[in-house]
Amino acid sequence: MATVAEILGTKYPLIQGSMARISRHELVIAVSNAGGLGVLTSAGFDKEELRAEIRRVKAGTDKPFAVNLMLMMDNIPDLVDVIIEERVPVVTTGAGTPKPYMPAFKAAGVKVIPVIPSVKVAKKMADLGAVAVVAEGMESGGHIGGTTTMALVPQVANAIDIPVIAAGGIGDGRGVVAAYALGAQGIQVGTVFLAADETPVADAFKQAILAADDTATAVTGQRIGAPVRTIKNAMIAKYLELENAGASFAELESLTMASLSKAVFDGDVENGSVMAGEIAGMVNSKRPVKDIIEGLFNEAEAVVKNLKITY
After folding, report:
1. Quick one: 88 and 193 in the same domain?
2. What is the span of the domain harbouring residue 244?
3. d(CA 253, CA 248)
4. Residues 144 and 269 in one domain
5. What is the reported pLDDT for 211?
6. Which residue among 74, 183, 233, 249 is least crowded, i.e. fewest CB within 10 A of its CB?
7. Count of CB atoms within 10 A of residue 228's CB?
8. If 0-12 CB within 10 Å is exposed, 13-18 middle and 19+ buried, where does residue 214 land?
9. Pair (184, 289) in one structural domain
């Protein structure tokens, strides 16, 4: 079996988690140039906007990168056309099945890596011809499943014969080693990049991440079946109040309308959605992407070297 780094064409077995509105060309270029797989978000882009972002990435790096597709979006067929036309080497997917698009991707030589929340879905993706899966635990930021990384990864690794990439709760070298111990062959990380120098978000967003501690996040949308993990703020408190009171989907939607853009672009971290994982409390400084990636794997080597198991 090929290693994750061989599959991705990267130095490190690391995928940068796609973060809606955030994972734009600046971050993707930095991650790919540092030896990981930068992943470009397609959320909110039309066909030509995505093409323009892809070309910006190509202008900034000659290393492999990916595009993420949130498959519930209405314009996925158009975006698939652009990905194939622009010869993007890797696609990651979420929020649906890539089944309708797999023949076109395979014919074009595009490697597909779905993000999955369960063993059942992992098996389906392996059967479709995915080259690997990202098993994402509920510790992650943004839209989440219902199983923790520690419980999910080994069960997925036992169930399929393609590489498993662990995501959720990985914030340092100890997390990297733990992912491998659970049966993963690579990692996907997102929250660790939120305060990176190259991440294109408002400074107030980065400061909210830096100020976070281990209990800083909350999960909304549980009742309506669309759980999302964000940092607690005034808007989240209001949402949880309404959700617990039995508010309708429309009421909840009206509260969160454009909330991600408010936080990312406007820096309104009280009325916007600051999506982040539970390891936000481990992000304590602004650093270049290169330092973050090298730090993860240098720390992992030190952890392995010094690991002592006694009985």
Report:
1. yes
2. 217-275
3. 9
4. no
5. 95
6. 74
7. 19
8. exposed
9. yes
Nearest to 299 by CA among 199, 170, 169, 191: 170
**What is the chain written as a DSSP string?**
---HHHHHTSSSSEEEPP-TTT--HHHHHHHHHTTSBEEE--TT--HHHHHHHHHHHHHH-SS-EEEEEETTSTTHHHHHHHHHHTT-SEEEEESS--GGGHHHHHHHT-EEEEEESSHHHHHHHHHHT-S-EEEE-TTSSEE--SS-HHHHHHHHHHH-SS-EEEESS--SHHHHHHHHHTT-SEEEE-GGGTT-TT--S-HHHHHHHHH--TT-EEEE-TTTT--EEEE--HHHHHHHHHHHTT--HHHHHHHHTTHHHHHHTT--TTTS--B--GGGGG--S---HHHHHHHHHHHHHHHHHH-----
Tokens for 288, please give them: 């270049």
Domain shared by 93 and 161, yes or no: yes
Residues of the chain with pLDDT under 70: none
Indicate whether 206 belongs to any domain.
no
Pairing of strands 186-189, 14-16: parallel
Using CB atoms within 10 A of its CB, is residue 114 exposed (0-12), middle (13-18) or buried (19+)?
Answer: buried
| Cα 55 from Cα 24, distance rounded (Å) | 12
Q: Tell me, what's the pLDDT at 224?
A: 79
Count of positions (residues) in the chain = 311
* pLDDT attached to residue 49: 95
What is the distance between the terminal CA atoms of the chain, rounded to a whole angstrom?
A: 33
Does the residue 211 lie in any domain? no
**How many beta carbons lie within 10 A of that of residue 76, not counting itself?**
18
Q: Is residue 208 part of a domain?
A: no
